[in-house]
Design goal:
Helix content is 35%, strand content 11%. The chain is of the alpha/beta class. Strand 5, helix 8 and strand 6 form a beta-alpha-beta unit.
Length: 219
């Protein structure tokens, strides 16, 4: 399904009844409605960041629900699309920490290829209807993905932004990992802790301590 080591790691998950029901549900949705991301990009985060490469996990909620914005990576948008406000705030925080220029593109594939796993907790959404697929079973699947990541021996940084992401804290019990928690980067909450959180520098300091290659957060 994915084409890398995730296939073996998630083999049993893909065969469970709940997952088969998810796939039946989204097949119906894609055949009768406009759903994002494009069908072939639902698992882009897994395709671009193999399990063995994961160094940082950034959790999003569900995909952008406007035309052309979602492509299977949390917070990311394809080249040439307008940059959503939450992503603009992410770029502002990186600019504050590192001084990198604010990018003109919202495509985060460069991060994904370095080991930043950009996982939405819900992987599909109906056009114009936020959270419309939040109860179809995706959260069971992505919770189990987080549990699988928690079991990895290689140190991983988990960035949990906002109350929904913070709920996943209880799934991360491995002391080898670093968990960073703050407010969501949306315009409604970024000033409650996201701005000035230093998560990107903190992640790189942790990776450096563990003798792992740091992430180049510039785009």
């Amino acid at each position: 399904m994915i084409g890398n080591d995730w296939d073996l790691a998630l083999k049993d998950e893909f065969e469970k009844d709940y997952f088969l029901k998810i796939m039946e549900f989204i097949d119906r949705e894609y055949s009768s409605k406009t759903v994002y991301p494009p069908y072939g990009e639902i698992f882009n985060a897994f395709k671009m960041t193999p399990l063995d490469n994961v160094k940082v996990v950034i959790l999003g909620q569900d995909p952008y629900h406007e035309k052309g914005q979602a492509h299977g990576l949390a917070f990311s948008t394809p080249e040439g699309r307008p940059i959503p406000r939450s992503l603009k705030n992410i770029f502002k925080e990186i600019n504050n920490e590192y001084g990198y220029p604010i990018p003109e593109s919202g495509c985060l594939e460069k991060w994904a290829k370095q080991g930043v796993f950009l996982l939405n907790t819900v992987l599909t959404v109906e056009e114009g209807n936020a959270n419309s697929h939040s109860k179809c079973g995706w959260q069971t699947f992505t919770d189990n993905v987080i549990r699988l990541l928690n079991k990895q021996e290689n140190p991983i940084v988990f960035m949990l932004w906002g109350k929904q992401a913070e709920k996943k804290r209880e799934l991360i019990t491995n002391p080898e990992h670093l968990v960073l928690i703050t407010s969501h980067p949306s315009p409604f909450s970024a000033r409650r802790g996201f701005f000035g959180c230093n998560h990107f520098k903190n992640a790189n300091e942790f990776l450096k301590e563990k003798e792992l290659e740091e992430i180049d957060w510039s785009l």
